[in-house]
Amino acid sequence: MKVAKPDFVVLWARICLEDDIKSFEVLYRYLYNSLHKLALYYVREQEVAEDIIAEIFVRCWENRKESTHIQQPESYFFVAVRNQSLKYLKKKSGTTFIDLAENEAEHPVEAYTPESLLERKELHHKLDHAIETLPAQAKLVFRLIKENGLKYKEVADILEISPRTVQTQLFRAIAKLRLVLKSEKPSGFNAEIGEKLISMVILLGIITFFKYVVGNF
């Protein structure tokens, strides 16, 4: 029988505010397998993946009093494992890893004016804010695919859900982002930036659908 998913926010509050070791053990047991699969996806070494998970959990316990600001513990651990895995690979190979979502090498150097850099920063800020409004699972699926570059089946294995659920959650996330970005136009909001954001999300939806149709998931 599959263990019911705990309320991570409640567990995290107990850990940070009450030093509750039992809540920490529940958090560890529930997340370990998924986090281990994610680490192993990057480092390809069983022992290294285990060390990365252990180091992150030990550090989180030691720094629990300073971690009350973390609002999405589950997402926090996935990001921490990803970052630590990439850090290990960089140290091992001397290679610099670049987030493909941020890599805009196709643009000429002269395009990076102060105005364009400010616009890109605002675009990413608005998109990140919109992503944070997504339901927990949809947000996690979106970030694993968009930021980590994982495929449907890989995300399904890590989260222990079906590839169809991954697809559904991703499509829902894209649809929700479009609605949020269209409605989020307070005073002073740059209309052109808003339209670019919406276009970005629509493009992401088209690319995602294409990958699904050709079976690349």
Automatic annotation (TrEMBL):
Protein name: RNA polymerase sigma-70 factor, ECF subfamily
Organism: Pedobacter soli
One Pfam family here: Sigma70_r2
GO MF, any single term: DNA binding
Similarity comment: family membership: Belongs to the sigma-70 factor family. ECF subfamily.
Transmembrane regions: 197-214
Gene3D superfamilies reported for this sequence: 1.10.1740.10, Winged helix-like DNA-binding domain superfamily/Winged helix DNA-binding domain (1.10.10.10)
UniProt keyword Iron-sulfur present: no
Keywords: Membrane, Sigma factor, Transcription, Transcription regulation, Transmembrane, Transmembrane helix
CDD domains named among the record's database cross-references: Sigma70_r4
InterPro entries: RNA_pol_sigma-70-like (IPR039425), RNA_pol_sigma-70_dom (IPR014284), RNA_pol_sigma70_bacteroid (IPR014327), RNA_pol_sigma70_r2 (IPR007627), RNA_pol_sigma70_r4_t2 (IPR013249), RNA_pol_sigma_r2 (IPR013325), RNA_pol_sigma_r3/r4-like (IPR013324), Tscrpt_reg_LuxR_C (IPR000792)
Domain HTH luxR-type: 149-176
Presence of the UniProt keyword Membrane in the record: yes
GO biological process: DNA-templated transcription initiation
